[in-house]
Amino acid sequence: MVGDGVPGRLLSAATKLFAQKGFDRTSVQEIVAAAGVTKGAMYHYFGSKDDLLSEIYGRVLRLQTEQLEKVAATEAPVPERLRRAALDVVVSTIENLDDTKIFLQSVHQLSPDRSRAVRAERRRYHERFRSLIEEGQRAGVFRADKPADIVVDFFFGSVHHLGAWYRTSGKLSAHQVGEHYAGLLLGALRP
Amino acid sequence: MVGDGVPGRLLSAATKLFAQKGFDRTSVQEIVAAAGVTKGAMYHYFGSKDDLLSEIYGRVLRLQTEQLEKVAATEAPVPERLRRAALDVVVSTIENLDDTKIFLQSVHQLSPDRSRAVRAERRRYHERFRSLIEEGQRAGVFRADKPADIVVDFFFGSVHHLGAWYRTSGKLSAHQVGEHYAGLLLGALRP
Amino acid sequence: MVGDGVPGRLLSAATKLFAQKGFDRTSVQEIVAAAGVTKGAMYHYFGSKDDLLSEIYGRVLRLQTEQLEKVAATEAPVPERLRRAALDVVVSTIENLDDTKIFLQSVHQLSPDRSRAVRAERRRYHERFRSLIEEGQRAGVFRADKPADIVVDFFFGSVHHLGAWYRTSGKLSAHQVGEHYAGLLLGALRP
Amino acid sequence: MVGDGVPGRLLSAATKLFAQKGFDRTSVQEIVAAAGVTKGAMYHYFGSKDDLLSEIYGRVLRLQTEQLEKVAATEAPVPERLRRAALDVVVSTIENLDDTKIFLQSVHQLSPDRSRAVRAERRRYHERFRSLIEEGQRAGVFRADKPADIVVDFFFGSVHHLGAWYRTSGKLSAHQVGEHYAGLLLGALRP
DNA sequence: AATGAATGAGTCTTCATTCAT
DNA sequence: AATGAATGAAGACTCATTCAT
After folding, report:
1. What region holds the HTH tetR-type domain (chains A, B, C, D) (predicted)?
2. How many of the other CB atoms lie within 10 Å of CB of D135?
């Protein structure tokens, strides 16, 4: 998924370790050992430990943004598009659970610059999602007594929390959880 | 809120700092400086930095568990009791936003023993909440096509996420957010 | 053996702990806990941790010096007096194995003043022993081609080493070991 | 003697300091200062302060074991081989007096694992020495009324004690002391 | 006689990063 | 492209001792 060159192996190793033990608890030494390279090699490709984290963020954000754009641009009726978007974000979150965990635990640990950049991208994503809800509210198919951004935060809280409880070994597939979550969101928005 | 003896001052300082910068990024030196005591004094009262964290957790957990018990034991109809419980947990989470933030960022950084204890308490809390939902499903006032524990995780995700976006300086009061969140939850559960 | 007042209990606890883990590895906290008193109480009776160590030394030294004087003053022939002295010192060393261990491991850790005093006492003891050997050499009953002080160091090395291997649970009694050691010493001195 | 690279300098400095002041009383800071390197450099080569100690032990043990094997494998009559072994161990102990001092004071301060390993090696050494004595007892050239292992402990006590009194500046050379000690041991074993 | 809170200097160790090769 | 030795600042924690009560 990340490629098997040295940078790819480093990214994979870092992702797994950051998700398991957190950014601060993971030493550069551990990362390079897991990737089977030396410290020098890592600093050849990445400027710093922070760099590794930024790179991981970037990848997930780009991925999710692309998916959302694709769904939102569809011709389907709003509720259907929202349902699809909600389902997709749950499924892709579960498929990249490590990245999501890192995301939540470690944004604060990025340098101010990088943190800002990541947040901006995140905000754009949320805004795209919110515009979908507002469209439905204006069309009268969604209840309008709840501010759209509250609904967005409500829903993305649930999504971010997936990493805290979802286990691949559990009895629900990613898709099933996605259907439930989308169903709850749509249910909550019924007029 | 925590008392003004040395232990109380340490707990307050630690809470604020852990919430701001995360557990790992906060040094014992910073904590004692903020509390105006010496390192030795801290280690006189708390066995370790972990101890401080556990103590903070314990307080919040006890507080929220008590509140939930009180509401759940009421005579009101289930939807009303669930609405109250949801409202309460949002309000109390916002009122103790620092503790909540710490909770989410740092449970993983406790020693295995302590982490287990905290999780167990947390689970009991969720189970109490879930039993309220199941009661409503059996009574036919809540839709039964969504597993109750999925609903619990869905809702608590939203609650935990509050720390990520809610600002005291924003335009919504804790109570208003609580009403919205409770409304969305109840809406999602309508048959 | 040391009395059961607070000072006695402290001395006993300290002796056991120092022998087990060494002076530096034993904290004042552990000593007072083992003695069932508080730190303040300890500092009421002893000026410092070093003080405790000096006190322990003093006791053993006095004990062994007294025994030696008693044996040496006897009317028996020299070889018999030396045999008795050697036997006695082995038996009493084994009976106070903890003190002996402490002695060897920790003399260097006393303050210069105290270390000097302890060494001086030790030297007097060795000199008394040496004079017994010299007496036998002059009388022609001990070989004279080995300097007496070399013999003393040779023998006391063996004695000090007892703490490193002797176990109460082993198959030899203190007295049996004493007989063997005295026998080896006398054997080595045969003309 | 240890080489003059960074690890060698560290080992030399540590040996001298441990012998002078004891393991616990010597700080890592002092060692690196004496070796003229930084703390980080030390931890690059040695995993811990204990590691340094283990390394020092290892060297002496290997040295002495080799010497003993060489002498024991000789064709000479047993008493002569024992005399040579005794002489050698005294001379080599005096030549590495620092290491020996450390040995005695600090084995107890190693981690259980390492302590076990060092003791095991030590035991093998003693057993080789003991087999020499037993050989002589079976051949009837040594008295058989003293258990061989008691004799070994008796003699090695004397040897270990050398560090407590031998001074290079004294009037006896290492070789002279060795002759005396070997003479006393052989004398003690005469039938 | 005894307490126990508080001190503050000191301990070992970790770690991201640099740099000559 | 890659190594690995070396740095130096910072980390959590320990402990003998003091002192007001």
Report:
1. 4-64
2. 16
Torsion of CA B154, B155, B156, B161, to 10 degrees: 90
Residue-level pLDDT at A105: 79
At B76 the pLDDT is 92
User: Where are the CATH 1.10.10.60 domain residues in chain A?
Assistant: 1-47
| Confidence tier at A1 by pLDDT (50, 70, 90) | low
- The first and second tokens of residue D37, run together, are 């390197």
Class of domain B1-47: mainly alpha
C161 vs D164: CB contact, 8 Å cut-off? no
Q: Check residue D111 and give its pLDDT.
A: 77
Under CATH, which architecture does the A49-189 domain have? Orthogonal Bundle (1.10)
% of chain A exceeding 70 in pLDDT: 98
Segment B65-86, tens digit of pLDDT: 888 888 888 889 999 999 999 9
Q: What is the CATH number of domain C54-189?
A: 1.10.357.10
Would an 8 Å CB–CB cutoff place D171 in contact with chain C?
Answer: no
Radius of gyration of chain D (CA): 18
pLDDT for residue B121: 85
Integer Cα distance of B80 and B74 in angstroms: 10
Strand F nucleotides where any atom sits below 7 Å of a protein CB: 1-20
Residue C59 has which token pair? 């006791």
Domain with CATH 1.10.357.10 in chain D: 49-189
CB nearest B146 (choices: A162, A164, A184): A184
Residue A45 and residue A31 in contact, taking contact as beta carbons nearer than 8 Å = no
* CATH 1.10.357.10 domain extents, chain C: 54-189
Nearest-CA distance from A66 to chain B in Å?
24
Q: In the structure encoding, which two tokens stand for residue C56, read together?
A: 């322990």
pLDDT above 90 (res A169): yes
Distance E2 C1' – B110 CA (angstroms):
38
The closest alpha carbon to A161, from A106, A110, A90, A107, belongs to A90
